[in-house]
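Workshop exercise sheet. Pairs work together: one partner reads the sequence aloud, the other fills in the structure field after running the prediction. Swap roles for the next sheet.
Pair: D.N. / O.F.
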Amino acid sequence: MTDNEKKRITVEIYNRTYHVIGTESERHVQLVANLVDQKMNEIHDVNKQLDTASLAVLTAVNTMNDYLKLKEDYATLLGSLRKKEE
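Structure field:
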């Protein structure tokens, strides 16, 4: 199997089984699934009344917020490095 060949990987997120198809390694997909599961459980612990769909949306919003902050930090860091090179 080549690196670009698609694989089917079974993961469990929030007590449900999902089949993920992609080119990433199984280890990577499992890590992502575990992080999503962890975030969903964290949010559920403080919002026990949420249904699964609302919980999933809040998890996506929180995750995208974290991503955008990291992206901004990365851009700032790259800008600082470029200034030092000049």
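Discussion prompt: The longest strand covers residues 7-13. What would you look at next?
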